Amino acid sequence: MNELIKKLAGAFGPAGSEEGIRSLIREEVEKVCDEVFVDDLGSLVAVKWGNAKKNILVAAHMDEIGFMVTFIDKNGFLRFTNIGGVLKNTLVGSRVVFSNGVTGVIGREKIEDGKEPGLNRLYIDIGARSREEASARVKIGDSSAFLAPVSLEGHRVISKALDDRIGCYVLIETLKSLPASLPCTLHFVFTVQEELGLRGARPVAYRLQPHFGLAVDVTRTGDTPEPDYKMNVSLGKGPAVKIKDSSIICHPQVVEMLVRTAEKEGIPYQMEVLERGGTDAGAIHLSREGVPTGGLSIPCRYIHTAGEMVDLDDVQNSIRLLAALFAENW
Fold first, then answer.
1. Would you call 136 exposed, middle or buried from its count of C-beta atoms within 10 A (0-12, 13-18, 19+)?
2. pLDDT digit string, tens, across residues 70-84
3. What is the pLDDT of residue 181?
4. Using CA atoms, how far apart are residues 99 and 6, in angstroms rounded to an integer?
5. Which of 15, 210, 307, 311 is least enclosed by beta carbons within 10 angstroms?
6. Pairing label, strands 270-273, 240-245
């Protein structure tokens, strides 16, 4: 198991509480870039200065989905709301952890009609025996995230938060592989609050004024039994070049550059049309007067659960593709 992937995926960082994961990433990128800073909303920017005047923004989001405490009942059970797109039907029995290390398990009230329960019928049990005991350990407004091990099965990693810690890993490793001299200036941005509506990418794109943008994130697959959405993306067949999702129709120039580079380097790739979901590309391309933007996606099964799965071959080929892409004359 790659230790950096394990550290990134296992780190605590639901949207709005990215301090820990940001510090971890900063320790890695400060060794290999020319400048590092944090913007006012909390996104981390790592800069590699190049020879030309072209400025490229490459984004991966640091945050993960999670849960926020809204009420503590007299018996010490915590009611909660979602932080991002949690899937209600996967939550019961899931373990969660708060930033202070308190852990709990998600339970459900009895449902008479057999219908899928809303979040108002779920609760977090931290083992407290009363409201007073629970309140001494967890406060209203505290955030939690899935608590799950990071495991390697063959070539495939299973973990919570691979959306989008695996994209963060790809950016970090790409930074490490870049030569000293580049034909363009690169801003590698690790954004906040993507899971709440692409919030972090919008102000940082406005600030950096990029000539081109690229979001590196996960995407769904169509290779499991009867998937919700039919799509031509599978684990292990290469990174996916995004054409469209709910937030963007990618700029044809960026799509063409990604495809041309992959074919030139002999890197396997897939074409992605995502019917539901979006990435930071959706915010980047609408910044200022508009930014030609695309997306490179890592195929991922079981997105927004405690057991997301990616293939390490896809991850390594994403790094290869980005490194080759940034050597091109933009």
1. exposed
2. 999 999 999 999 999
3. 85
4. 18
5. 307
6. parallel
Does position 289 have pLDDT exceeding 90, yes or no?
A: yes
| Cis, peptide link before residue 164, omega less than 30° from 0 | yes
Does 194 participate in catalysis according to the annotation? yes
The partner residues of 147 in beta bridges, in order of sequence, read none
d(CA 189, CA 42): 11
Which of 18, 28, 64, 194 is labelled catalytic? 194
Entry pTM = 0.95
Strands 293-299 and 212-219 come out as parallel
Residues 21 and 172 sit within 8 Å (Cβ to Cβ): no
pLDDT in tens, 97-111: 999 999 999 999 987
Q: Kindly report, residue by residue over 140-151, the tens digit of the pLDDT.
A: 999 999 999 999
